[in-house]
Write a structure and sequence with these properties.
281 residues; alpha+beta; 3 helices; Immunoglobulin-like; five-stranded mixed beta sheet; binds zinc ion; 2 domains
Length: 281
């Protein structure tokens, strides 16, 4: 009986302490939402729309936890269910997804990059499957340590999410952030990790993808030179290649993208969210 009493106290304490950081959140499609838990039962599990999301340890305060919830660009809008389940109950967190009015742009590229032939189609589908298998693999180990940095300091020429029309026929959306970069500009790893892709691909051109652990991947496309190899461990700020104009491009630039738990998200908005953990009040 005493045990039951203390358990009630414990969960009551959990609720009081955690409510302050669990206020209702609003997000756009393509965003990552961060929920912080100053206190949470040891056996707690977090679910987003019935899918389990990893409960991660705060980088500065080992007793505190957080979750990253990636909202797909093509997500339905409205109220979402985020549920914390533990032995003696559950807590629902409020998350409202709003539709962002992303701008529109038209782009002209080589015709073969819009209407690939059969052999090229086989290649793109093979490369797509290979990449998705990687992105849906969540390495439990954490490689990232510090706040994320930009891959280079340059003007942003196209934001994530822009609705795109290629050569007047192919509709798509921009899955990353483009930085102005003339061919040969050094590109840097945005955090520590392991290189999981370092090769030429049909649309992305010469590509580097880094696994930062915990389901977080950063991607660097259209490079002119690769300076890292598959399986190599890289440090934040390390030069991983040079920018270029390989793959489906209308000119040289860096396409920087991030995948969180297999979902393509706005990379710079992700930076803001995760980097907020490093900002002490
Ligand atoms: Zn791009």
């Amino acid at each position: 009986m005493f045990q039951g009493f203390f358990m009630i106290i414990r969960y009551f304490t959990f609720l009081i302490f955690s409510l302050a950081s669990l206020l209702a959140q609003e997000a756009y499609n393509g965003n990552t939402v961060l929920f912080e838990f100053s206190k949470i039962p040891k056996d707690a599990q977090v679910f987003f729309e019935s899918k389990k999301v990893p409960l991660l340890t705060h980088p500065l305060h080992v007793k505190e936890k957080f979750v990253l919830i990636p909202i797909s660009y093509r997500s339905f809008f409205g109220d979402k269910n985020v549920t914390v389940l533990y032995k003696n109950g559950s807590t629902a967190l409020a998350l409202h997804v709003k539709k962002k009015a992303y701008p529109f742009e038209t782009i002209t590229v080589a015709p073969s990059k819009v209407k690939p032939n059969k052999k090229q189609q086989e290649r793109t589908s093979r490369e797509y499957k290979e990449a998705m298998k990687i992105y849906h693999t969540s390495t439990p180990k954490r490689y990232w340590k510090e706040a994320f940095i930009y891959p280079l300091q340059a003007k942003i020429t196209s934001d994530f999410g822009t609705a795109r029309m290629f050569n007047g026929s192919l509709k798509s959306f921009h899955s990353g952030t483009d930085f102005r970069a003339k061919t040969g500009t050094p590109i840097h790893a945005t955090n520590d990790g392991i290189v999981v892709i370092a090769k030429n691909r049909y649309y992305a051109g010469n590509s580097v993808v880094i696994d930062h652990g915990e389901g977080i991947y950063s991607c660097y496309y259209h490079l002119s030179a690769l300076h890292v190899k598959l399986g190599e461990r890289v440090k934040q700020g390390e030069q991983i290649g040079l920018s270029g104009a390989t793959g489906r491009v209308s000119g040289p630039h860096l396409h920087y993208a991030m995948m969180i738990q297999g979902v393509q998200v706005n990379p710079l908005q992700f930076h803001e969210q995760i980097n907020s953990l490093f900002q002490e009040e």
